[in-house]
Write a sequence for this structure.
């Protein structure tokens, strides 16, 4: 199931409840191009634009609601398990569990209190024609007109550094970053989209700094870099308050990357240049370089232990 951001808008309302009154922040989960569905409480699961029977209420006389196309409908009181079952069967709805601190929700008190960020506004207008399987390596050059058609948004990492990135890639990167943060691991954007012109500058800089042999191993020829796609993400680590972005120091963080890499496919990413595949990818091991291909494809590639060079045959 596709994941959706739950913080596109924040609303605060005095939610009237048959058993209690409360005020709480509520997130609207939304898919681009469709009306919002309200998600109450600490929603950790996926939220789609389907209708839902809402459960997870500790009160026996639980009520259920649907908010779709900006209409709120109270569906009445009944035992939560029975009501959920009936609604799911009758309407083909999915059932999700929410926090157990609310009952009936009345929509008239809900007010928007925070506008979406510019990145989220731009995400709403993203180009659906992006080829998430675009294949670029040392022998496959990016199409000359790709960059001109690529939708990009401007985002910042936690240090305030700006990057350009394809919208859906950023959406899923943020989900990955949040999941890792819950495990005590902090990752940040370090390098994302680079134009062909910028790649030429990097080749010159790295050749001067590290030498031609290093550049051959780690730096793509302009026009042949995944970073031109907007779908590739190089990360840095923050460990004990220290930024780790040096390649050798990053490679040394084996324990941290051993926790990061198994999570990549869940959020649509693959490790693009893994160990043992150098003869296929043409690059040495880069534990920091992730490529967005979408969740379904990422699971296929990672589950089979493949790299794109093998998968695209």
């Amino acid at each position: 199931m596709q994941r959706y951001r739950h913080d596109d808008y924040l609303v605060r309302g005095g939610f009237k409840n048959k058993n209690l009154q409360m005020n709480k922040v509520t997130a609207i989960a939304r898919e681009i191009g469709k009306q919002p569905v309200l998600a109450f409480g600490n929603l950790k699961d996926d939220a789609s634009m389907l209708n839902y029977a809402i459960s997870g209420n500790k009160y026996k006389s639980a009520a259920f609601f649907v908010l779709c196309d900006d209409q709120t409908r109270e569906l009445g009181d009944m035992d939560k398990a029975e009501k959920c079952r009936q609604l799911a069967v009758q309407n083909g709805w999915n059932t999700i569990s929410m926090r157990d601190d609310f009952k009936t929700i009345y929509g008239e008190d809900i007010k928007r209190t925070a506008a979406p960020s510019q990145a989220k506004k731009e995400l709403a207008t993203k180009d659906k024609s992006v080829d998430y399987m675009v294949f670029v390596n040392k022998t496959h050059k990016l199409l000359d007109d790709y960059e001109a058609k690529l939708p990009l948004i401007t985002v910042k990492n936690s240090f305030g550094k700006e990057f350009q990135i394809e919208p859906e890639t950023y959406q899923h990167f943020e989900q990955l970053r949040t999941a890792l943060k819950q495990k005590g691991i902090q990752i940040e954007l370090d390098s994302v989209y680079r134009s062909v012109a910028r790649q030429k500058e990097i080749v010159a800089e790295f050749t001067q700094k590290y030498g031609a042999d290093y550049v051959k191993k780690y730096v793509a020829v302009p026009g042949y870099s995944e970073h031109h796609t907007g779908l590739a993400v190089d990360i840095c680590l923050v460990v004990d308050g220290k930024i780790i972005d040096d390649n050798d120091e990053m490679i040394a963080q084996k324990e941290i990357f051993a926790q990061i890499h198994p999570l990549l496919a869940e959020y649509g990413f693959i490790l693009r240049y893994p160990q043992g595949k150098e003869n296929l990818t043409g690059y040495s091991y880069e534990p920091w370089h992730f490529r967005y291909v979408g969740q379904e494809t990422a699971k296929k590639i990672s589950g089979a232990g493949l790299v794109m060079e093998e998968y695209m045959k």
About this structure: The two ends are 27 Å apart (CA to CA).
